[in-house]
Amino acid sequence: MTQVLDASEARVYQGQFGEFTITQSDRTGVIIYRASLIIAALSFATATWLVLVQINNPITLNLVTLLYATFCIALGVSLFTIHIYMAALHRTLQIFWGIGVFTSIVLAIQSQQPLALYIYQHPLTILGVGFLFAALTGIYFKEAFCFNRLETKVLTPIVPLLLVGHLFNLIPPDIEQVLLAIWAVLFVVFAGRKILQEIPQDIGDKSVFEYLKNQPKAKA
User: Fold this and answer.
1) Residue 37 pLDDT > 70, yes or no?
2) Cα–Cα–Cα angle for 214, 216, 220, nearest 5°?
3) CA atoms of 86 and 213, how far apart (whole Å)
4) Rounded distance, CA 88 to CA 12, Å?
5) The pLDDT of residue 208
6) For residue 69, how many other CB atoms are within 10 A of its CB?
């Protein structure tokens, strides 16, 4: 991506459209992005485990709902701190997250059942809640495209396959459980590996961001 011009902690880089500096604020944003991904992954994996072991009692189902809420919040933080060159795509993923969260809140208020159970038993709810996971898939796709990560290459098709399959009743329950387990495990692997990645890689080439930001002004 870049080349360091000053090795004495100045953190000045040569980008495609000029020099740029990575600030402490940039680094803090990446740390928040990665921390929120870990929280989202662990919440999702824990909820998945509770579902797969089939401990069907009110306490467990309500715990799954709480974990789902934690996952939603953490995913939202990730989407607001992730670095994506295309502003329109970034905004679209955030809107998708908003639609999914809004739908989940409405369903949680209206339903007399725990949210996760209600969504599972009413596949049409995926038409609303699914936007949340479309936003998550956007993160997987971005990471697969930018960093060539194997786990995100697998996650990118698995998520829509599982959701569409359940929506139209195309996948047997046993296969759904296998796909869900793979999703949970690879999500944790993905989030865990992000910890070891160098922070500047997640920031990207800031000169590109600046160039794209100034394009509308240049046309005007």
Assistant:
1) yes
2) 115
3) 10
4) 28
5) 75
6) 16
